Amino acid sequence: MAKERIQQRRDWRAESAAFFLNHRAVCLLTATLLAACAVLGFLRPPMAKIRAQISPRFVRESGSRYSEAKVNLLVIGIARGRNVKTGDTETYVGFAGKIFQADLNRELDLKAKAEKAEKERGETVRAPLTKTERREYQRQKLLENVADIVLWIPPLLDGSKITVSLTILSTLTGAFLSIFMALGKISKFKPLSKLCSAYIFVFRGSPLLMQLFFIYFGLPLINPNLNIQDRFTAAYIAFTLNSIAYMAEIIRAAIQSIDKGQFEASKALGLTYGQTMRLVVIPQSIRRLIPPVANEFIMVLKDASLVSIISLSDLAKVTQTISTTSGKVLVYIPSIAIYLIITALFTFIFNRLEKRFSIYQ
Amino acid sequence: MSLIRTEDVCKFFGTLEVLKNVSISVEPGEVVCVIGPSGAGKSTLLRSLNQLESIYSGKIFIEDELFLHRDKGVTVGRTAPQAHKRLLLEMGMVFQSFNLFPHRTVLENLLLAPVNVQNIPKAEAEADARQLLETVGLSAKADAYPARLSGGQQQRVAIARALAMHPKIMLFDEPTSALDPELVGEVLGVMRSLAESGMTMLVVTHEMAFARDVADRVLFMYEGTVLEDSPPAEIFTNPKNERTQQFLQRILAH
Ligand SMILES: Nc1ncnc2c1ncn2[C@@H]1O[C@H](COP(=O)(O)OP(=O)(O)OP(=O)(O)O)[C@@H](O)[C@H]1O
Ligand SMILES: [Mg+2]
What we know:
heterodimer, A: about 350 residues, mainly alpha, MetI-like fold, 2 domains, three-stranded antiparallel sheet, 13 helices, extended, B: about 250 residues, alpha/beta, six-stranded antiparallel sheet, about 25% strand, globular, binds adenosine-5'-triphosphate, binds magnesium ion
């Protein structure tokens, strides 16, 4: 057994090596970027220096009550002055030892906007930007975008917390409970089997959105005792009930794909039905379960965006809010990136699990 | 006293009558081989004995205790549940397709039932299992998973697994039919030595040489009935029934 474990580990190493070879370009690029960021990050100017740059206008108007965004990433430091009266903001980016002021080149900004508007109206451009002005303008825009993304990350991560915890909790609970649902459905006791089939039919056949809506808003109307105060709990219940139905079908299919010789051998050896399931059938189905369960997991991760209808701020909702309030569509890029990172992470975990459970093959 | 005895066992698959009033008996220490053409009901007979198939009517006695009595698809008599399980475990079964537990090592395959069904302490069961692996010549494979073994080795493990429950009779359903020809010998060898050690065996087989050399009696089944029940010397040299003659001619021709 020890030998097989070692063999297993070797296989894994060989596979990772192969992975890096196959994706050489991507891996190299990522490594270079990371290294560069690390170096540039160390060259980040101290916060005090950034603070000193904040324009006197802001410090004066707000009585030096400028606040500092709580972002202090490895790479980029930012100070943001907030003027309480006008809601104006000033953003500074400290990067690679320099301090840039983003967003404030108003003259250029206004000029560029006027130019664009005139172009759209088909009028002659009265005051075109000079070449240097244009370059400066583009640099400012870029810095502003970088600063924005960094500032959005904390709220986006806050939203991801809801998305991820809802997904993990409800799929885990769902996976556990669905074992019983699956066993119920394949049971020879007809009423139980019918009941489980009906449950699966209802929860697979109707939109999750409606189930969620019904549990949060509908149940209290039917019986006031069923009022679920906490929104997250309501979402958790709805998502769990839903994933029980989906996973029960996955588990049923996996159990029924086990060779019937396994059942016969168990019976001939005197194992009870429960022992046969627990010791023989379910352990063998687990490996077959992992790919469809991983799939289901990713579906739930994306479906989690539905919780916005009960005003929970998950990742998708936060993204949407930022985009509508700031008018910056760019926020979808870091948001999608976060989704992809989460998906990649869990795909990796599920792949490892699958390997782990296939040692006997 | 017979170890197993059946009286007028009938069995249907839908409208097909697979067993027609089958009455057989196996005495302790006896090796009985069952031969017959495909579809004769040999497997069904074996599987009816240890309840993998439920019979339509008839009686099954184990050690002269009425194990099961059914009439027109209804159970009219059987031993009390505890005794029923004990009697069931007196039959060990070896399948054509081995049916080892693929997610457990060879040793764990042997331990599963003794530990979980008979509640034997693990250490004791393990000592016993290692002993059994030695008798089937597979001590070295104790920690391997079944998928890493050859067919012959797997079937020997399956025999050891059945023996680990210390049954009084071993039922074999064509134990070598799924094997490559060069692997048949090692399994038959184990079965031979098992027979020599005095184990009672009921063997469905197409290996006529094995039946001739090892069996005390040979049953010939045809379309759900036992047409002939004679010692091998008689059945192979001088079959009484015409069907038996035809079958043996065909089988021994190649
Ligand atoms: N589960 C089943 N459902 C329906 N018919 C079956 C089933 N099992 C077996 N039969 C039928 O019962 C008859 C007897 O089958 P059985 O497997 O007992 O034959 P056998 O003598 O073991 O043949 P073989 O040498 O091919 O194994 C065959 O006609 C077979 O088609
Ligand atoms: Mg058969």
